[in-house]
Amino acid sequence: MRALRAAVLIACILAGWQLLFWWAGESALTSPRDTFAYTLELLGSPTFYPHLAETGQAFAVALAIAISCGMLIGFSLGLYRFAGEVGEPVLVALYSIPKITLYPIVLLAFGIGMPAKIAFGALHGIVPIAIFALGAVRNLNPVYAKAARVMRMPPAQIASHVLLPAAIPELFTGIRIGFSLTLIGTLLGEMFASQRGLGHLLMQAIGLHNVRVIMALTLLLVVIAVTASALLLTVDRRLRGRATGTV
Amino acid sequence: MTITPGRVRFALALALVLLLEALCRFGTINRFAMIPPGEILWDLGKILAGRTMWPAIAKTLTNVAVACASAIIVGVVLGTLIHRWRALRETLDPLFAAYYAIPVYAFYPLFIVIFGLGDMPQVLIGFMLGLVAVIVNTLNGLDRVPRALMKTARIHRLGPVDAALQISLPFAAPYIFTGVKLAVAYSFIGVIGAELIMSRTGLGYEIGFAYNNFDNAVMYPLIVLVLAIAASVNTAFFMWEKRLLARRRR
Fold this sequence. Notes:
The structure holds 2 protein chains of 2 kinds. By secondary structure, chain A is mainly α. Chain A folds into 2 domains: 27 residues; 214 residues, MetI-like fold. The longest helix of chain A is centred in the last third of the chain and has 38 residues. The mean pLDDT of chain A is 86. Chain B has a domain of 138 residues: Orthogonal Bundle (MetI-like fold), CATH 1.10.3720. Chain B has 10 helices and no strands. The longest helix of chain B has 38 residues. Chain B is globular and about 75 Å long. Chain B starts with a helix and ends with a helix. Classes of the chains: A mainly alpha, B mainly alpha.
């Protein structure tokens, strides 16, 4: 049933796309069929592969940084009540400001290239991961932490052996959202601060008004993002189900 | 004086700014990389006193307002409609779940090609970013309307539009407000981001222009201005929500 609904949804989107193509014409966008064909062609071409690898690499490093720093911030603010009260509004405010305006500062600090992209991606991912980690730690049953303290566990061990396992479902939701935002951040970084990568190709295609490349890259990015997000969502639901004992 | 989280926050922010000021003044941070915070404020004052930047500010704020208002109105209407059709909702659910994973800026080039380089592409990006947050939160709120209230609506023979306007939407208002807050934040992010990527006017464009010309005396004040505007609008909505919730609890 769920597969059927997904199929209906995809069919509707493709139909809408085709209608839009008929309405807007070839100078504005390419038809679904051409776009899929050209995307496959791009994926097969040897000049495209380095760009994909570059983006993947930047994204992987940015995500690793975002997760580790976000967790660290979230855990430290979550464990100490007062620190949490001081820090949480700051995190929420940071989440809602347009971080894209900070890119000139990131570029001035890191220069053009890989480090700037990574920094830009991580910058987008850290805050939501920290907010969810903070919530996860704060909403833990206080008995767990008390039991750990009674057993005189050192703080690092409390975090790794008690709090982390108990908080995993909530933490994973944070990682899922951080994943998408880090991807967006990395791509934005590439659009401004790079000579390689998918974001750079997209920017170049805008400059050249190359509709085929724009459409193919957009399709590729949407497919990657939606697939990854669907997978993460499945894991997320399973973790939550296990935590409440329904699976 | 008691130690409250707010005061500690203020003290920390002040300490950070003073640290930056000191680092810049003593030359640890190069002048080409950053200018001292005091000077940024001074330059910002000069920019605001002059006339050249006001059209860009007005343009950005208008586009944000249009994007945000249309996202809220369309989002609430669509949310109410989708809530009535179960099959439609179950079909759209996966789209909503995956929506924020899609890099919306990837569509920006396409919008420029279709609509030209006017205001429309930027507004559309802000609108698209905000829309789904409003829809999802409207659905979430409408799910919680107690059945007794809807029965009352039927007893009074309210049509679907009246029932929505007078009963279910007001009940769902606090949840919708969560969506509204997100829509405000997202339309700022969308519009200014789009302006930075490619546009002819607006604050985002001016920041990019100043950056490309190494004009730190314009770039930093404008960045601070954008962050200050976004932060104060978001805070204002946050306070408004708090007041609404307090009134409801009485």
